[in-house]
Amino acid sequence: MPGTRLAQLNQCIIQCRKCPRLVAWREQVARDKRAAYCDQKYWGRPLPGFGAVRARLLLCGLAPAAHGGNRTGRIFTGDRSGDWLYAALHRAGFANQPTSVHRDDGLRLSDCYVTACVRCPPPGNRPTPQERDNCLPYLVEELRLLKRVRVIVCLGGFAWDGVLRALRTLGSVSARRPRFGHGAEAVVGAYQLLGSYHPSQQNTFTGRLTRQMLDAIMARARTLAAAADA
Fold it and tell me: Could you say which of 46, 166, 174, 216 is the most buried, measured as most Cβ atoms within 10 Å of its Cβ?
């Protein structure tokens, strides 16, 4: 069953120690907590994906935030990026609630799965090429197991590149390498890729990414996902 195999993959991800630098950093952050969270127990391990096993839409980001997912144990949870993302998913009908604060808060996703290229928080939010490549098989396997996924929203250029690498591994290629941009679209094999600026504070605080822009991406993703079954 896909759900069982996905659960097994997630356990493998959680136990991963392939990248010494990332292991040391995620554990240091979990030990030397931010003052605002000093009374909380940090997750401090790699993060699996989260969402519906029969999802037609997959969202892919760069990596967990040091004091977000690395603290809460769920991707895009407990930080400003997640606040923007899950609120947009709720407005588009993919989430049952607009907030994501910890992994036991009752959030459920419908027809949607959220993941990342790198599963541990990298120092300075910059994974090395080797760390990126070490994590790539996890994304590849997610795509193999999430058999109904036909639309992939890439949150940022790093995710766009990572998804293209994963699809290439699966044998899905396009005639020309599509370029990332907000609102960019590309057909790669059986998948429709959508590009979106990452909902990081540097984009949302500066107005580079607005609520209306993110909502438009989610609306387009819903339209494409529905068309995939037509």
Answer: 46
pTM of the entire structure?
Answer: 0.96
Query: pLDDT tens, position by position, for the chain (230 residues)?
Result: 667 899 999 999 999 999 999 999 999 999 999 999 999 999 999 999 999 999 999 999 999 999 999 999 999 999 999 999 999 999 999 999 999 999 999 999 999 999 999 999 999 999 999 999 999 999 999 999 999 999 999 999 999 999 999 999 999 887 789 999 999 999 999 999 999 999 999 999 999 999 999 999 999 999 999 988 76
Q: Helices marked H in the chain — which ranges? A: 2-14, 20-31, 69-72, 80-91, 129-145, 157-169, 201-204, 211-228
Q: What's the rounded Cα separation, in Å, for the pair 5 and 98? A: 29
**Domains in the chain: ranges and CATH:** 2-228 (3.40.470.10)
Sign of CA dihedral 132, 137, 162, 98: negative
